[in-house]
């Protein structure tokens, strides 16, 4: 897939950040929730996977709505839905698209439906995830109370969802500390506290009951059956109102599209848009797998005590995630005191490992790291296979402060400027044959 870069489209005097992902024959305009940031969503493994999967069969045009993410902040009147439709059309124009499938996510469906109704010549088809007719009959004081809780959480707890966000929006991820922190960072980077009330009230009070019957574009509705925010009955009502719409009810409890599995969503969209399901994102892929862990973590935890060790581990995790983001690594899992991550190329993995070794030394811990390049089995956001075991075994043989790699990685990086020192042949537990290992000396 070609390099993805952030560009800007002009809508009046407002600049809207957007990206184009993939080179497929069908343009796909993605209109997301107001909790959104075109660059930061790539740090969320499930969202990254969704974008790449969509980009395997379409040209995805992905943007931040005005007042959110990397788009211009708004002074004066905040945008109504009609203004946001004009913004979406401006992004299409900037991306050179005359006609696109429009994919609305969560309350982004309100803008997607209005666009389909107002500019049918620009909307070849419509996909709605977790959509409804709107017009939620919440009392005004209840809406105001929710706005106050969300705003207070952003101001005082950095958006870590203690108001109930994750339990309501992503119940399958309750207790997943890494996910909670990722979602909190996304909220902080997406919207300023002062505009939360506008967007939340807009999403809760907008009513599309007069718009939906006028939509003429072929329409697919996707909805998780256990969604607590927008119950499945709301999706059924919407499907019955849009002429010819088809509803696919998906298993799961999560309202956030990236909280649960995204493969079934991408498969359904591909089949709807192309007439077939190629699973272009294959079940297996060639990647570089990297493992890290803290040297002597058991002794450190015992000496420091639970609270101090927990604080140090949190700092270590933030440092590692910053380097993964810097070098394009995708976090697959945490291993208590370490990480498993994948990279598209061995050079990025090795340079990332070196950067992590240096960065965590500044917070008082020493890590070791190992990497191997090979084919892995893709299981949703997870990976499996012999290459994963090889990378883990290589990391386990590294000394403190050392990055150790398999001969496969070293051979792929000949001429890259990265220097290696031979560490001999080794038997890797549970892995056939003997393996040449190399220490990375400089990158």
SSE blueprint:
Blueprint: E1 7-11, E2 14-21, E3 26-31, H1 45-55, E4 58-63, H2 81-94, E5 100-105, H3 108-118, E6 123-129, H4 140-157, H5 165-169, H6 177-190, H7 193-205, E7 219-224, H8 232-241, E8 246-250, H9 263-274, E9 284-294, H10 297-304, H11 306-327, E10 330-334, E11 338-343, H12 346-361, E12 367-379, E13 382-384, H13 386-397, E14 403-406, H14 407-412, E15 419-427, E16 434-442
Parallel strand pairs: 3-4, 3-5, 5-6, 6-7, 7-8, 12-14
Antiparallel strand pairs: 1-2, 2-4, 9-11, 9-12, 10-11, 12-13, 14-16, 15-16
Helix pairs in contact: 1-9, 2-3, 4-7, 10-11, 11-12
Structure commentary:
The structure is a single chain. Strand 7, helix 8 and strand 8 form a beta-alpha-beta unit. Helices cover 39% and strands 25% of the residues. The protein folds into 2 domains: 268 residues, 3-Layer(aba) Sandwich (Rossmann fold), CATH 3.40.50.1820; 159 residues, 2-Layer Sandwich (Alpha-Beta Plaits). It is globular and about 70 Å long. Helix 2 packs across helix 3, helix 4 runs antiparallel to helix 7 and helix 11 runs antiparallel to helix 12. The strands form 2 sheets. An 8-stranded mixed β-sheet has the order 1-2-4-3-5-6-7-8, with helices on both faces. Strands 9, 10, 11, 12, 13, 14, 15 and 16 form an 8-stranded mixed β-sheet that branches. It is built from 14 helices and 16 strands. With 443 residues, it is an alpha/beta fold. It starts with 6 loop residues before the first strand and ends with a strand.
Compute the average pLDDT: 88
The third-level CATH topology of the largest domain is Rossmann fold
Could you name the CATH class of the largest domain?
A: Alpha Beta
Going by CATH, the homologous superfamily of the largest domain would be: Alpha/Beta hydrolase fold, catalytic domain
Biggest beta sheet summary:
8 strands, mixed
Shape: globular
| Shape-level CATH architecture of the largest domain | 3-Layer(aba) Sandwich
Task: Give the CA-CA distance, first to last residue.
Answer: 25 Å
How many structural domains are formed by the residues?
2
Strand content: 15-25%
Structural class by sheet pairing and helices = alpha/beta
The low-confidence runs, each spanning 5 or more residues with pLDDT under 50, are: none
Which strand order do you get reading across the main beta sheet?
1-2-4-3-5-6-7-8
């Amino acid at each position: 897939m070609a390099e993805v870069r952030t560009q800007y489209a002009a809508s009046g005097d407002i600049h809207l950040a957007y990206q184009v992902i993939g080179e497929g024959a069908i343009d796909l305009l993605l209109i997301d929730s107001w909790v959104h940031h075109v660059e930061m969503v790539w740090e969320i493994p499930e969202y990254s996977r969704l974008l790449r999967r969509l980009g395997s069969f379409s040209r995805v045009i992905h943007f931040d709505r005005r007042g959110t993410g990397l788009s211009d902040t708004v002074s004066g009147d905040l945008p109504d839905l009609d203004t946001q439709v004009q913004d979406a059309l401006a992004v299409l124009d900037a991306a050179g698209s005359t006609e696109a499938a429009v994919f609305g996510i969560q309350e982004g469906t309100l803008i997607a439906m209005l666009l389909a109704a107002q500019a049918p010549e620009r909307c070849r088809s419509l996909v709605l995830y977790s959509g409804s007719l709107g017009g939620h009959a919440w009392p005004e004081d209840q809406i105001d109370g929710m706005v106050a809780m969300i705003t207070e959480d952003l101001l005082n707890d950095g958006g870590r969802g203690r108001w109930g966000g994750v339990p309501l929006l992503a119940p399958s991820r309750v207790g997943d500390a890494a996910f909670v922190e990722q979602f909190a960072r996304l909220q902080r980077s997406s919207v300023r506290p002062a505009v939360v009330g506008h967007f939340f009230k807009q999403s809760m009070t907008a009513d599309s009951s007069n718009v939906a019957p006028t939509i003429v574009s072929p329409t697919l509705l996707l909805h998780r059956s256990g969604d607590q925010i927008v119950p499945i009955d709301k999706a059924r009502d919407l499907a019955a109102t849009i002429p010819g719409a088809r509803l696919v009810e998906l298993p799961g409890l999560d309202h956030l599209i990236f909280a649960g599995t995204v493969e079934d969503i991408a498969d359904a969209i591909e089949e709807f848009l192309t007439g077939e399901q190629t699973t272009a994102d294959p079940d297996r892929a060639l990647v570089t797998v990297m493992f890290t862990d803290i040297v002597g973590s058991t002794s450190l935890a015992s000496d420091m005590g639970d609270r101090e060790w927990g604080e140090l581990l949190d700092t270590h995790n933030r440092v590692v995630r910053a380097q993964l983001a810097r070098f394009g690594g995708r976090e697959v899992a945490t291993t208590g005191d370490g990480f498993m991550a994948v990279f598209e190329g061995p050079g990025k993995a090795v340079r990332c490992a070196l950067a992590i070794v240096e960065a965590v030394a500044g917070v008082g811990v020493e890590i070791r790291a190992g990497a191997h390049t090979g084919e892995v089995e893709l299981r949703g956001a997870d990976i499996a296979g012999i290459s994963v075991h090889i990378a883990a075994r290589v990391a386990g043989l590294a000394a403190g402060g050392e990055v150790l790699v398999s001969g496969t990685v070293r051979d792929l990086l000949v001429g890259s400027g990265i220097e290696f020192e031979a560490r001999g042949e080794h038997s890797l537990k549970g892995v056939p044959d003997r393996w040449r290992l190399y220490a990375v000396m400089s990158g």
